[in-house]
Amino acid sequence: MREKILNTVKGKVFLGALLFALLAAAIVAVNSTILKEDLTQEDQQLNLGEPVDDVTEIAQATEPETLDVAIEDLVKAETNPTVMETPANPTKEIAAETTEAKAAQADSGKVVASLPELNFTLDSKMDWPIRGNVVLDYSMESTIYFPTLDQYKCNPAVLIQGEVSSPVTATIAGQVTEIGHNEEIGQYVVLDLGNSFQATYGQLKDISVLEGDYVTAGKVLGYIAEPSKYYVVEGSHLYFKVTQDGNPIDPMDVIQ
Predict the structure, then answer these.
(1) How many CB atoms lie within 10 A of CB 139?
(2) How far apart are CA 179 and CA 225, in angstroms?
(3) Is 109 helix (H, G, I), strand (E, B) or coil?
(4) Within 13 Å, how many C-alpha atoms sit on residue 52's CB side?
(5) CA torsion, points 46, 47, 49, 53, in degrees to nearest 10?
(6) Which residue from 240, 178, 236, 163 is spatially nearest to 209, judged by alpha carbons?
(7) pTM of this prediction?
(8) pLDDT tens track for 127-137
(9) SS3 194
(10) What's the sign of the alpha-carbon dihedral 212, 216, 220, 221?
């Protein structure tokens, strides 16, 4: 009986040891499988990471080439600026410039068409350049007295009294051929009237025209200035002279 019990116990112990060994083997197998999966995942991650390094190396390798190309382009632009400034559509810009040139020619034609005709004759009549009394008459055939100079001499112009800063206007259409200054008549403007006639306006200030300008009758040329030292006693006035072929004529013969 005792022997039977011992055999039974030994059988149970053997069975327990067998079960324990099988359990241990199962645990080892599971751990081995998990370890292989971990290693496989790490390998995959490493394999995925390799192209990134390759891309970085490619980018680093191409950066100097890109920089060299950019520097070369800049050098070309500095040595030949027209390369960088070439218009996107040259044909369109040329057409625009041609249009502008034609418009300018058309405008120029309008200006030329509107210019006054310079055709002054002895039968033409002028307006007064300024309203006032004549303080010294024209006199080329005899001498007249000049109060400031206290002497008698010929006078190739008329002196028309006027207040300082009074406007002086063109008596008839003409072209400004000269603007100047001298001691006797101060600042002056000379107009070409056509047919070798000219008109000189002296004792002016603040002249408002330029040489080459075409003016019509009534255009303000400037303003009465203080008289020069030659005409202090005569007072402020306009010095007005008309010539034909350089020879003075009596302005009063053509002023209406």
Answers:
(1) 16
(2) 15
(3) helix
(4) 5
(5) 120
(6) 178
(7) 0.57
(8) 999 999 999 99
(9) strand
(10) positive
Helix (H, G, I), strand (E, B) or coil at 88: coil
CATH of 134-253, picked from 3.90.550.10, 2.60.120.510, 3.10.20.90, 2.70.70.10, is 2.70.70.10
> Three-state SS across 145-169?
EECCCCEEEEECCEEEECCCCCEEE
Q: Which two tokens stand for residue 86?
A: 């070439």
Nearest to 168 by CA among 237, 250, 244, 243: 237
Please, what sign has the CA dihedral across residues 128, 254, 161, 184?
Answer: positive
Q: What is the pLDDT of residues 57-104, one digit of tens each?
A: 444 544 445 445 454 554 455 555 444 444 455 545 545 555 565 555
Contact 238, 203 (CB under 8 A): yes
Q: 3-state secondary structure string, 36-84?
A: HHHHHHHHHHHHHHHHHHHHHHHHHHHHHHHHHHHHHHHHHHHHCCHHH
Residues in the chain: 256
Report which residue type is found at 40. T
User: Within 13 A of 22's CA, how many CA atoms are on the CB side?
Assistant: 6
